[in-house]
Amino acid sequence: MGDGEVLHCQITADLSMLRRRIEAFAAAAGLAAERLDDLVLAVNEAADNVLEHGAGSGRIVARADSSSVWVEIIDPAGTLSEGHLYRHGDGLPPAALRGYGLWMMRRLCDRVVLDHPDGHARLRLYMRYQPSTPSVPPRSRKAES
């Protein structure tokens, strides 16, 4: 897949189809393993929010370049605000049974940007092919005892 590749799809109740299309697009662009899974999960959460809290339909535009994949989730309702996006700050997850979607997106993706072109809410999820810093391997159970 070369620079400038773009995927367009509608947000409908068929989130499994949306996940398959995003996964295939991002994998063909070069995203792999856990980073690919994280992006698919984040896009699913964003699309589900559009269905449940937004206009009930919307669209996805995904782009790939030489270093990353951007996925735009566009909600015609335009009701998502910075206050929603950062309601729980950078700390612990919300103390609730629901409401983890935006919190998760911010932790799974390298960057999350919200704007409102033409009155629509546009949430942009950005994932580099490689993490910007090497991850620290988890401690073994033996080291904890």
UniProtKB/TrEMBL annotation:
The lineage of its organism: Bacteria, Bacillati, Actinomycetota, Actinomycetes, Streptosporangiales. Residues 14-125 form the Histidine kinase/HSP90-like ATPase domain. It comes from the Bacteria. It holds the Pfam family HATPase_c_2. InterPro entries: Anti-sigma-factor_SerPK, HATPase_C_sf, HATPase_dom. Keywords: Kinase, Serine/threonine-protein kinase, Transferase. This is Anti-sigma regulatory factor (Ser/Thr protein kinase).
